[in-house]
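Standup, Tuesday
Yesterday: got the pipeline producing structure tokens again.
Today: sanity-check two examples.
Blockers: none.

Example 1:
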Amino acid sequence: MTILASPDGAPASAENLTQNGCNHNGAEPIRFHFKGFSIWLDFGEQRSDFPSAFSTTGNGDFSEKNHSLNDDVKLACSEMAEAHGLFPIPAPHVTVLYGIEHTSQAAVREKFSQVRELIKAWPVLRPIGMVADVELDGVNGGTMDMSWCEITFASSDAHEKLVDLVHQIFHAGVKGGMHEQRAGPWRPHLSIAYDNPEGKALTMSNVLPMLAKRPSLVGDRKATGISLWSTEGTMGHWKLLDQIVFDEKQATADRSPSLLSRWRNAFYL
């Protein structure tokens, strides 16, 4: 595994963390305006527990005892936010599909019900490195203005088939074709923190001590569910719309290819 910094490019809500536009440590969400609806892989407890997980002690500090599940990634996210005065990412996640804009909230919820029917588990994610970097919209292929740090994972044929399935569900019938073509292979990553591009906090010199403290961050990781979020606006406006919690007892990852075939057959018929 490599450690690198490369030029790559009342549902639960982030608003639960805010008071007058700031979170409890006084930080504002990054300025960048995200778009549309997004599909996330979830890790750990359900997002309905999210607001209380980031509650603070009387002196305004984050308290680890507030976590009903002391998950390594959740603690890393809250610790990075506290240590560097950043607005915490609303929930640790890996994005499957970002920025769905061609549909209404009612329609996207209906499509998500197909995800509930067809996807019962997700193959384990294997880490291949950590990245701390800056991206600028329109520069070297960048599409966002931010700095960030992340755990980067490998994709596989099994992962790509599931991402294809999710993409086809949400893009079926768009622009006169059966679905828009998905661009490139999936690049799974789990972000630990975001900052504005001029921020100086998210550097490898700050990421490496966090990794030394919590080496389990770069262990294999299994998603506990998949969720639908509105990611329109700044991070403080993100909202959870629906969530599926995987049932490990009945689900196996190798069911997905047959489900993909079943969905395609049903759709094309």
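Example 2:
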Amino acid sequence: MKSASAWMDIFEATRSDLERVHGDMKRLEGDNSNIRQKRNLAKKLTSARDNLTKLQRQLLQMEANPSGFGIGVGELERRRGLLAELQSLQKQADASINDRSNSNVSFATRRAGGKAAKETEETMYMTDQALVQEQKQTIEQQDEKLDVLADGLTKLKYMGQDINAELGLHERLLDDIENAVEKTDARIQSNTKGVEEIQMKSKSNCCIFIVMVLLLAIIVFLIASPSTLESVCKKK
């Protein structure tokens, strides 16, 4: 069986919040110095609206299944009356908020160039002077952010110039390296041709040397063997 006591807990808390909001708004009426407190009251009123919606939904569930919640017809009727009481308190609190909000419509309209601007919880409790001051502070903050952005862009500009100069230096270094490589390649090719020519000359000189050695060997052989020379002559 579901418990119905939670409904009463939410009801008591919501009624207390609505009575406090309504009373405090009446007490602060015409006082523009407690802006933060008025903002907190507006937040409480929003929370109370949510709780009121929750109570309405749970009461419908109780009406659909009274036995499941252990509640009778008389108790249901009593809770309907309590819910109506909360709705009346909510309307009173809303009226207090709307009265203060409407007092700033004229300035909000002037700020928007004749077109009514949407009021927020942050501005509905602020006087015209406070709104002007807030607008000035907002403009000053925007100017500061723009100055920071401009400084950042200037730094990026200088960094780009430095990078461009560095790239130019690297390009010149690469050109020098390429020229050195081309010169070295030309020298290698020239040296290769010289080596090939030397090799060809070496082969030719080697052949001449071999022929001279053979001729010298023949001459030495003939001198060393005169009998052989005579026999050769007799045969002829």
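Quick observation on example 2: Residues 39 and 121 are 6 Å apart (CA to CA). Confidence is low (pLDDT under 50) at residues 103-117.
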